[in-house]
Amino acid sequence: MQGKAQAAAPKVWMAFVLSGITLVGLGVTLVPQPAPGSILSGGAVWALAAFALWLLYREALRHPLCFGMKRLWALSAVFAAIMVLGQSYGAVGSAALVKGQPALAALQWLGRTPLYAAGMALLTHALCSGETHEPEQPRKARPFWQYALILYACWLPYLFFIFPGTLSTDSLTMIMEAIGLRPLGNANPIFQTMLLHCFRFVGVKLGNGDITIILYCGIQSILMAWLLGVLIARMMRSGAPRWLGTGSLVFFAVNPIFPLYAFCVGKDTNFAMAVLWLMLCCHQLCEEEKPNRWNTLFMMAASVLCVLLRNPGMYLAVLTLAGLLLWTLEKTRRAAKLWVAPALSILCAVCVFAGIRLMLPVLNVAPMPETEEYSLPLQQVARIAATHELTEEEAAALDGVLELGKVSDAYNGELSDPIKNLWRTDATPEAKAAFFRTWPRLAVKYPGTSLSATFHNTYGYLYPGFMSQIKPTFLIGRQRSTTEMDHLFKYSENPRCHLLIRFTDELAKNPLYRALVAPGLYGWITLYAFALLLGRGKSRYLIASVPMLFTLAGCGLSAVNGYFRYSMPMYLCAPMLLWLCALAKPMIGRKHQ
Question: Of 28, 58, 236, 592, which one has the greatest count of Cβ atoms within 10 A?
Answer without folding.
Answer: 236
